[in-house]
Write a structure and sequence with these properties.
Blueprint lengths: L2 E6 L7 H15 L3 E6 L26 H10 L2 E7 L7 H8 L6 E2 L9 E2 L4 E8 L8 H14 L3 E9 L8 H5 L7
Parallel strand pairs: 1-2, 1-3, 3-6, 6-7
Antiparallel strand pairs: 4-5
Length: 184
């Protein structure tokens, strides 16, 4: 059984991304995993200030909800990032959330090339929705996920579900059912 944390970056209460994430959550729960979803639209998470207070043993100084989420991030085996495609990338809410990972990094005396610190060892998955469905629709979002989450932070990619051309997911079980493609 895995502890799964779903970070929902969409802005609409029951939008496409929420419906897609709910389908994933349902399948994961049926498989016996413990799942918690955090909707960034219902809490406040600001972007990183770059102040480096966290590098001196202090919690992040931003007065928002991120510090209460840190223990959940550390406990999770799998972190699922769910976002609609906004201006060809992840939502600004999700981007701000990912920036704040800086405060959970630890000093690494011998970092791998291109890194400066180490992060907790986690698995990750990406769920995205978009009205468009061109061959390049998710290119920038996937590139960011692969570079920031997989290559730099070092999470292990467990899969992506890129639901392009979805319109409204109501009545389109092929989109909702395909969440089983993400390996747990």
């Amino acid at each position: 059984m895995k502890q799964i944390l779903v970070i929902l970056g969409g802005g609409r209460r029951n939008g496409n991304t929420k419906q897609l994430a709910d389908s994933f959550v349902s399948g994961a729960a049926q498989a016996g995993h413990q799942v918690e979803t955090i909707a960034l639209s219902e809490i406040e998470v600001k972007g990183c200030l770059g102040c480096n207070a966290c590098r001196y043993g202090k919690p992040c100084v931003q007065p928002d909800d991120f510090n209460r989420i840190v223990p959940k991030l550390k406990e999770a085996d799998l972190v699922v990032f769910a976002s609609p495609l906004y201006f060809w990338t992840i939502s600004s809410k999700l981007k701000a959330f990912i920036e704040r990972f800086y405060c959970i990094a630890q000093r690494d005396e011998t970092p791998p090339y291109g890194r400066y610190e180490k992060y907790p060892v986690k698995d990750a998955a990406l769920l995205m929705t978009s009205a468009d469905d061109f061959f390049w629709t998710f290119e920038q979002a996937v590139s960011y996920y692969q570079f920031a989450i997989v290559n730099y932070i070092g999470f292990t990619d467990k899969g992506m579900l890129l639901a392009g051309g979805c319109g409204d997911t109501n009545g389109k079980p092929n989109i909702r059912n395909s969440t089983s493609e993400v390996s747990l």
